[in-house]
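tool_call predict_complex ligand=zinc ion
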Amino acid sequence: MAKGIETLPAGLEATAYNIDPLNNTSCHWCEKELQTVEHFALNCKVSKEIWRTSYHFLETNQEESLSVFLEEIFSASNISNYKSTQAAMWLHMNVMNEIWCFYTTHR
Ligand SMILES: [Zn+2]
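tool_result ok
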């Protein structure tokens, strides 16, 4: 289901090219996990913790689930309260930035 790197927005595209699965690089924090864009952005235990923490600030008055797919990061289509879509998209971009900063300063 993963879309190609070329479909990602510019900021994440740069990230994606630095995380090249062809290099067979494993995640710094998860043993035996190949570093992919999906792992980096969504599935890594460190990324998940940043997502969980940030969603505490997203007050939509509904139970919201974290993004599961890359496209949900950019569309906020995982947010059930549509009135909060813009706030969620802003939050998502900041989460991606936070994950990237955390990744680059801790490796
Ligand atoms: Zn990981």
